[in-house]
Sequence to fold (359 residues):
Amino acid sequence: MHGYRAAVIAAGGQGRVHAAGYLADDRVSLVAVADVNRDVAAALAGEFGIEGVFTDYRELLQTVRPDIVSICTPPAFHLDAVTAAVEAGVRAIHCEKPIALTYADALQLQAVADAAGVQLTVNLQRRFEPVHRFAREQLAAGTIGDLVSIEGYCPNLLDWGSHILDLILFYRGDAAVEWVIGQIDVTTNRYVYGAFVETSSITQLAWPDGVRATVSTGREPATPILNLENNLGLILQGTRGRIVVRGSEALVHRFGANDIRFASPYDTDPATWDHGIDPAIFACTAAAVADVVDGLETGREPELSGRHGLAGAELIFATYESSRSRRRVTLPLDRHDNALLSGLEQGMWSPVGELRSTY
Fold:
């Protein structure tokens, strides 16, 4: 029991969820937390009984020498934190999404881990959500016939889009996308967790078998509601029906047959949540932590393998590149910067205002 020592870097909302996930696994001891704000780190440590409190994650890594580390910093710091963790001898790194702010950094992040034989996972934990497991099972069972297309809606590509694109790949069995074409609108100064993001966008993905996926992004007030409630959801269209996934609910429409409904089993009343954590998010993150530990124990590739995070990141940066270069982008992506940020520096976009979002 408690065979692995874990640490969390950054003690904000996601750090809290990761900490709860480690405490739920009997194979892990959560021994340290780091945050640039010592009071935040100390508060989390006190709440969860964590002994080590640091303001410098490098000091944590060199002092504690954990087996597993969760990196929950803003994405701009992921590569440096992953590199430091590898150099400190960490065996497994569980990194929050979005994986990086440029495709070059995303590739380098994976390469650093691979070169050292370190297990890298990205917390695209929605692959463990019951509603998405249900939808994928219905798709695989042929309930809606052959898949024709997928539609996705979310506030932005970099943050929420990491989940939506990853879920699309999840539904497709992680089949490689052949090409991407996209367009982005950059009319407002919109930031998510310190990262500049598009005002709205549209992305089309294509696979060799003819299936297409389209993802639309945007959020009020700059962009009117696009389609689904809260601008968030997925629609899988088949030859004999469709599956609509909205939040924690799914509805299967079958042509000529009764609908099938699925609802999340988790409590939605915040007053009942342990440590203020949504139980659905906690359950998925706990499953992600178990996946990390299982990978270490068995040597199998984790379900949240870093290659999935890298595949989704490629689609995001390919969308930005398609808009910049006005072309369909055949994968693998041939430009490794972030065309949204590069275009901003080059004067391609002229955003105005001070609209900022934390989600």
Q: What stands out?
A: The chain has a mean pLDDT of 92. The chain is about 35% helix and 25% strand. Residues 279-298 form the longest helix (20 residues). The CA atoms of residues 235 and 254 lie 13 Å apart.
